[in-house]
Sequence to fold (334 residues):
Amino acid sequence: MNEKLRIFSGAQPSGTITLGNYLGAIKSWVDLQNDYECLYAVMDMHSITVRQNPAELRKRTLDLLKMYIACGIDPEKNIIFVQSHVPSHAQLGWVLDCYTYMGELSRMTQFKDKSKSHADNINAGLFTYPVLMAADILLYGADLVPVGKDQMQHIEICRDIATRFNGIYGDVFKIPDGFMPKAGAKVMSLQEPSKKMSKSDPNPKGYISMLDEPNVIAKKIKSAVTDSEGVVEYREGDETKAGINNLMTIYSAMTGSSMDSITSEFSGHGYGDFKSAVAEAVVEHIRPIREEYDRLSSDKAYLEQIYKAGAEKAEAIAWKTVRTVYKKIGFLAR
Ligand code: TRP
Fold:
């Protein structure tokens, strides 16, 4: 028997992968792979809740998969796959739709936000997005789901749906716990440090892409917004320090140094020196990831083999859950 706890997580293939995505999620997934049995998927089915260009979606799906591997998620140790390759997600999603209330879905913050930002396309999938996400997690009996703070409400509804279902049919689903990995860092925009670093920022100086050239990274960090105090000190909650807090968060994540030791390292130095050090740390950290990403880009056959094997392994687990669920709810076995 395997006594390791199981982890499920995933990200949507929504374009440029930023340093924020990496530090906020992928880097902690890499850390978790040694202690847990992990499944990491590319959530392409969630992406179509917003209109996508087909060729772009296909490309981004593969790009994200490559990025997972390049960042150090080992395809031998983990199950890496593409959500739409495993039909069980849609199958369980539909069943769970019938055990989820309109009322609880209409309270979801992300739905309310996205209805505003995509007012011309408030489709039913956008509304039931959290149900598909619940299916993703429950299919694999995941114990733990590492997510960012913005996804915690979705974990809550997943637990509610699973508990409701179990209340009717017995212990079918494991009730998962969401958690925010300690190692995960929330990275803010370099230009508006009160906002999360986002690839949809119209100003590319606000974010660092994992594929930016070293000189571009350095330029972006050097033009990051700071303050006029000139002291490299982390002050939680101090708005005026938001820029420095953010650069310190990045530097700390890259070097493993604590905030205090960063302060002593740069005492008596100006922001210029500090920014150069941050830029160098980021460039050096990303360099091997970039190299591996480029190498993978020229090895289509290998990638194909990874996602096919991943889908098979995932499907074997997922289908068992669907079969149990179908039986419980009274579907005639074929
Ligand atoms: N909704 C998540 C996000 O946008 C992505 C996601 C879909 C996910 N299904 C999941 C994350 C299941 C964790 C578990 O970040």
Observations:
- The chain has two domains: 6-185+299-329, 204-294.
